[in-house]
Design a protein that fits this description.
This protein has two domains: 171 residues, 3-Layer(aba) Sandwich (Peroxisomal Thiolase, Chain A, domain 1); 147 residues, Thiolase/Chalcone synthase (Peroxisomal Thiolase, Chain A, domain 1, 3-Layer(aba) Sandwich). The strands form four sheets. It has a five-stranded mixed β-sheet with strand order 1-7-6-4-5, sandwiched between helices. A four-stranded mixed β-sheet has the order 8-13-12-11, with helices on both faces. Strands 2-3 form a two-stranded antiparallel ribbon. Helix content is 33%, strand content 25%. By secondary structure, the protein is an alpha/beta fold. Helix 4 links the parallel strand 4 and strand 5. Helix 3 crosses helix 4. Bound molecules: oxa(dethia)-CoA (UT7).
């Protein structure tokens, strides 16, 4: 029997209008444009403003644009998966809310959470549904409103994160394109170094834990940095080797955008020159689940059918992994 593969056939992104610049952050915390630029590569990030507006607002915009671009109706979608660490509410799933906003009615939908590796984990999860032969149009959304869980008095974390969303459509193909291979790993020991303590079942919200600012992202930057550099770089190099791809045959490396220095280390370790690395961290910061699809969206016009595209991510958990895509259009 011919193998069915899952191929990305459309992509679309959405970022909110409001631009939070390094200059504005200088007025909020004890930081400088120079520190942020040299340590992270970030110049500005987008922030979703407006009461009652959650991650699903951005996810829905991305999905609407995606369906329009591909020329299909919401009725054609079979499944929608949203990866996020900032769901609108603890339940129902943000995927359900996005589907509702877009008018997707003939589908089931659910969320996944693997922190910054969420989008690539969801992409492979979605690919399995497509490869089963039963699902023909599966949407994967990576979306986060990080501004809702960032402490804007903590200069080490507030300068890094931003808000955004992007979505891809997966469809079946019997050609040698699409999701070709993946390597994923996680290690829960990392929870000590990167987490949001309060608001879950272990520490439900109380006045005390909110006063202690435990409902915000806690990150030990240097520790996370070391794990990120090693693991993201190793896994990107491993997937290239395992598939016997010469580094000159890698068309694009698409790393999670957490820190420009981590991106550069990943490129060096995997032997991919910087001109083949997608980088938009300077504009959007770290949008957690949205970084990788936002890059693909911005570089869409430069991608060619058959291109070897390596996705790589590292995030809270810890979680990390890499995917080999053969671009399908
Ligand atoms: O996406 C999920 C995974 N997350 C990541 O991959 C993030 C990994 N970590 C990082 O990207 C970096 O560790 C940070 C960007 C978070 C921090 O950069 P760093 O180069 O590791 O800085 P550091 O924590 O070692 O701090 C160096 C100095 C400290 O001052 P002293 O102790 O040397 O006097 C900090 O207090 O920089 C200070 N500092 C700042 N100074 C100005 C920390 N944040 C700031 C700031 N502005 N915003």
């Amino acid at each position: 029997m011919t193998k069915i593969r899952a191929a990305i056939t459309a992509i679309h992104g959405y970022v909110p209008e409001y631009v939070l610049t390094n200059a504005e952050l200088e007025t909020m915390v004890d930081t400088t444009d120079e520190w942020i630029t040299t340590r992270t590569g970030i110049k500005e990030r987008r922030i979703l403003k407006g009461e009652g507006k959650g991650t699903s607002v951005m996810g829905a915009e991305a999905v609407k644009g995606l369906l329009e671009k591909r020329g299909i109706s919401p009725d054609d979608v079979d499944l929608l998966i949203c990866s996020t660490v900032t769901p609108d509410m603890k339940f129902p799933a943000t995927a359900n809310l996005i589907s509702h906003k877009v008018g997707i009615k003939n589908a089931f939908s659910f969320d996944t959470n693997a922190a910054c590796s969420g989008f690539i984990y969801s992409l492979v999860t979605a690919a399995q549904y497509v490869e089963s032969g039963r699902y023909k149009k599966v949407v994967v959304v990576g979306a986060d409103k990080m501004s809702s869980i960032v402490d804007y008095t903590d200069r080490q974390t507030c300068v890094i994160f931003g808000d955004g969303a992007a979505a891809v459509l997966l469809e079946p193909t019997t050609e040698e394109v699409g999701v070709m291979d993946h390597i994923f790993q996680s290690d829960g020991c990392g929870h000590v170094h990167l987490h949001m303590k309060a608001g879950g079942s272990a520490y439900p919200p109380t006045h005390e834990n909110i006063d202690a600012r435990e409902h915000y992202v806690y990150q030990e930057g240097q520790v996370v940095y070391k794990f990120a550099v090693k693991n993201m770089a190793d896994v990107a190099a491993e997937i290239i080797q395992r598939n016997q791809i010469a580094t000159e045959d890698v068309a694009w490396l698409v790393p999670h955008q957490a820190n420009l220095r981590i991106i550069e280390a990943t490129a060096r370790r995997s032997g991919v020159p910087m001109e083949k690395v997608m980088i938009n961290i300077q504009k959007f910061g770290n949008t957690t689940n949205a970084t990788i699809p936002l890059c693909l969206w911005e570089w869409e016009n430069q991608l060619k059918r058959g291109d070897n595209v390596i996705l790589a991510a590292f995030g809270g958990g810890f979680t990390w992994g890499s995917i080999l895509l053969k671009w399908a259009y």
